[in-house]
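Explain the record.
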Amino acid sequence: MIVLGLTGSIGMGKSATAAMFVEAGVPVHDADAAVHRLYREAAVPAIEARFPGTTSAAGVDRAALAARVLDNPVALADLERIVHPLVRADAEAFLAQARQAGRRIAVLDIPLLFETGGEARVDAVVVVTAPEAVQRDRVMGREGMTEAKFAAILSKQMPDAEKRRRAHFLVDTSRGFAAARSQVHGILRSASLMAGGN
């Protein structure tokens, strides 16, 4: 089975591209969705132990937790030490299930794939990209977004040019859905050939 890592900076169209892989019948593991689920389940006891008062019967209070880790690198590192292994285990279980089902291709959607060394866990990396002006327009159009917030997010992400340089495949989302979908199908044809060669 070929494992594709899907990544891209904020506003590049990664979620829409992930949906295109799903639409094409490929199983996709969404790291962000896994975190949301873990915040209701497995991560709760460890987060409460490290950050008392940030959870309830409903799970992690994301606002309360954010207030504790924002601008606190030590606290953020502690949170990542709790969450990252759980997300990775969740992804491994997903891949095991895909293999058992006889899937030829599976996708791990990891926002900070390069930043967290995730490329070592996949066979090829798909980077979703768009020109800087398109990215800025998309992000600044989001509710509550400010220049400062956008700059802070970008500072935590590897520059798009570097991601593109390290990618095996690119999906340029600036030319519309049909063009992006065509690129996704091209990637799947290549990945199928890779799977056949194993």
Q: What stands out?
A: DSSP finds nine helices and seven strands in the chain. The chain has a mean pLDDT of 94. The two ends are 8 Å apart (CA to CA).
